Automatic annotation (TrEMBL):
Belongs to the ABC transporter superfamily. It is an enzyme of class 7 (translocase). This is ABC-type quaternary amine transporter. GO terms for molecular function: ABC-type quaternary ammonium compound transporting activity; ATP binding; ATP hydrolysis activity.
Length: 347
C-alpha cells in the first residue's frame, strides 16, 4: 500500500504544487487521480518514486518512508509509464523491454526471453520485437512502454497520462488491455489522467483533485457519477454523467421476456443456429440491435432498445444466439432500479 501523510510540495519560486495530501492507495487495485491541468497530479505521482521530494509530510510504501530507501532499490519495485512511452529510440523494441532485467543482472538470453513474453502479454505481434520504436504506431509504442514497466514484475505501477497521445479508438483498446492485464496481474496501480471518462473506466477508486492537490472527492466510479460531492465535482463530471453511470452497471439487471412469434407488426427471424437475422415488417428486413446480458452494460442494453425498430432489444448469449428480448419500458424500469448491483468486473 502507498500512503501519503500530509505530503506537500512547494517549489523554490513559492509555487505550492501540493499543499498537503493525505491519501491511502490500496494494494492490488487501480486508483486514478483526475483533475484539471496544474492541480498537482504528476507531482503526487512522482513523490512515490522520489522523482519529486516532498517539502513537507512523507510518502510510505508498505510502511516504509520512501525517503529512507535507496532510489535505485525503490524504483526497481515501481514500474513507470509516461505519455509518449519514453522509449530509447536507438534500441530495438525487445531491448527496450529487456533494459530493466539487464540492469538487474539477468543474462541477455533470459532478459530477451522475458521481454518477448511481455510483448505477447501486452498484445504485440512477435515481429514488432526487432523493430525500432519509430517503426511502431503510437498505440504500439504505448504497449511497449507498459511492457517495459512490467519487466521487473514490480508490485507498483505509476502511470502518468499513458494513453493521452493516441487517438480515441486506439486509446479505448489500450484501456481494455490495461483492464485485462490488471485483472490478471493485480498490481497496485496509481494512474493519472485529466479525462474523467478514462478515470471512471479504469479506476476501482477515483480521486478527483482540485488546485494544490486537494481532494474534492474520493469514491468508486459509480458513487462518483451518481453522488458527486459538490457542484464543482458535478461540473467536472459533465452533464451526461447519469448516462455514463449506466456504463458501470451490468445489463444482467434487465429482466428478459421470452421470444414471441410476433411483436405487433414486427417479426424476428433467426438463422438455423438461433442467431438473430432480421426484424421483418411487411416482408422488409431491418437490422437487429442486440446486447449480451452476461457481458454488456445497461448502457449497451439501452442503446439496443433505442435503436431496435420494433422497440425490443434482443438479448444474446456468448455465441450470439437469441435468448430473449427486452422492451424499451423494461430497460427503463431496470435503469430506475436503485438496488441494482454495480458491476466492476464487466466494465
Ligand atoms: N519546477 C517547478 N517550479 C515551479 N512550479 C512548478 C514546477 N513544477 C511544477 N510546478 C507547478 O506545480 C503545479 C502542479 O504541477 P503538476 O505537473 O503536478 O500538475 P498536473 O496536475 O500534473 O498538470 P497537467 O495535467 O497539466 O500535467 C502547477 O501549477 C505547476 O505549474
Amino acid at each position: 500500500m502507498i500512503r501519503f501523510e500530509g505530503a506537500a510540495k512547494r517549489h523554490p519560486d513559492g509555487t505550492v504544487a501540493v499543499r498537503g495530501l493525505d491519501l491511502d492507495v490500496p494494494a492490488g487495485r487501480t486508483t486514478v487521480l483526475v483533475g484539471p491541468s496544474g492541480c498537482g497530479k504528476t507531482t503526487i505521482l512522482r513523490m512515490v518514486n522520489r522523482m519529486v521530494v516532498p517539502t513537507g509530510g512523507r510518502v510510505l510504501l508498505d510502511g516504509t518512508d520512501v525517503a529512507e530507501l535507496p532510489a535505485a532499490q525503490l524504483r526497481r519495485g515501481i514500474g513507470y509509464v509516461i505519455q509518449q512511452a519514453g522509449l530509447f529510440p536507438h534500441r530495438r523494441v525487445i531491448d527496450n523491454v529487456a533494459t530493466v532485467p539487464r540492469l538487474l543482472g539477468w543474462d541477455r538470453k533470459r532478459a530477451r526471453a522475458r521481454a518477448a513474453e511481455l510483448l505477447e502479454l501486452v498484445g504485440l505481434p512477435p515481429e514488432t520485437a526487432r523493430r525500432y520504436p519509430a517503426q511502431l504506431s503510437g498505440g504500439q509504442q504505448q504497449r511497449v512502454g507498459v511492457a517495459r514497466a512490467l519487466a521487473a514484475d514490480p508490485p507498483v505501477l505509476l502511470m502518468d497520462e499513458p494513453f493521452s497521445a493516441v487517438d480515441p479508438l486506439v486509446r479505448a483498446g489500450l484501456q481494455e488491455e490495461l483492464l485485462r492485464l490488471q485483472a490478471e496481474l493485480g498490481k497496485t496501480v496509481l494512474f493519472v489522467t485529466h479525462d474523467i471518462e478514462e478515470a471512471v473506466r479504469l479506476g476501482d477508486r477515483v480521486v478527483v483533485l482540485r488546485e494544490h492537490g486537494e481532494i474534492a472527492q474520493l469514491a468508486d466510479p459509480h458513487t462518483l457519477l451518481t453522488a458527486p460531492a459538490d457542484a464543482g465535482v458535478a461540473a467536472f463530471l459533465g452533464r451526461d454523467r447519469g448516462l455514463r453511470g449506466l456504463g458501470l452497471r451490468p445489463a444482467a439487471d434487465v429482466p428478459l421476456a421470452k421470444l414471441e412469434p410476433a411483436y405487433e407488426d414486427w417479426k424476428l427471424t433467426l438463422d438455423q443456429d438461433g442467431r438473430p437475422e432480421h426484424w421483418l415488417r411487411d416482408g422488409r428486413p431491418h437490422p437487429v440491435p442486440v446486447f449480451a446480458p452476461a457481458r454488456d452494460t445497461l448502457r449497451a442494453a439501452l442503446d439496443a432498445a433505442v435503436l431496435a425498430p420494433s422497440g425490443h432489444a434482443v438479448a444474446v448469449d456468448a455465441d450470439g444466439r437469441a435468448i430473449g428480448t427486452a422492451s424499451r419500458a423494461a430497460v427503463v424500469a431496470a435503469l430506475a432500479d436503485e438496488g441494482a448491483q454495480v458491476n466492476h468486473a464487466g466494465r
